[in-house]
Design goal:
The chain is mostly helical and about 80 residues long. The chain is built from four helices and no strands.
């Protein structure tokens, strides 16, 4: 049981497809990982979780281009949430 606890407290592991080149070439930062997770949740239709991760990505973004990309993704997710209500 103690090995499970240590594994649960360790750094979160990245999905295998994060290692492939994408928009950012690598998903090394937390901002990029949250953007990826937000996109994945949106694709699954889990828009509230997507919004949460995209807001985290927006808060962690450091450059203007990343903020623009995340803001556009967030706008789309918010429109999807409004549509479903």
């Amino acid at each position: 049981m103690s090995s499970w606890f240590i594994a649960a407290c360790s750094e979160r592991s990245k999905p295998a497809d994060l290692e492939r080149p994408g928009f950012f070439n690598t998903y090394a930062s937390n901002c990029q990982l949250n953007l990826y997770q937000g996109r994945a949740y949106a694709a699954q239709g889990r828009f509230e979780m997507a919004k949460e991760h995209l807001l985290l990505a927006l808060a962690q973004s450091t450059d203007l281009e990343t903020r623009r990309v995340v803001a556009n993704e967030l706008k789309g997710v918010e429109m999807s949430i409004l549509t479903l209500r």
